């Protein structure tokens, strides 16, 4: 089967169904936010499903093969996301986000210094935005005593 937009649209619908199945039963052990934890995966599933329907309806265009080295970068990104999920609770939001940003920046040929500065700034600013500004509780990890 040749890859085209419709195949991607069908895959998006399956992924949206998985997100809906996963997110529908999410319940917080105690209420700390008015919306609750199920809102984000369900909203994301809706957006992905709408995009999938559009690809199926308007699709049919052939998809060019990935350029040289792209498949390696994609698989490396999957490893980085898995490492991010593993480290998130243990080392905390700021450190795990900074590390993820640094290594993703390097995948896209950023210099070490720019990636380090950008990663550290993103980790701190997003923590302040979500934890302090939006009152979303994030793990502090190894920086717990400093925050």
From TrEMBL:
Quick check: keyword Transmembrane helix in the entry? yes
Q: Where is the DUF1468 domain?
A: 9-139
Indicate whether Membrane appears among the record's keywords: yes
| Listed transmembrane segments | 7-24, 39-57, 78-105, 111-130
Q: Which UniProt keywords apply?
A: Membrane, Transmembrane, Transmembrane helix
Q: Which domain of life is it from?
A: Bacteria
Supply the InterPro entries for this chain: DUF1468 (IPR009936)
Q: Under which name does UniProt file this protein? A: Tripartite tricarboxylate transporter TctB family protein
Q: What organism does the record attribute this protein to?
A: Advenella mandrilli
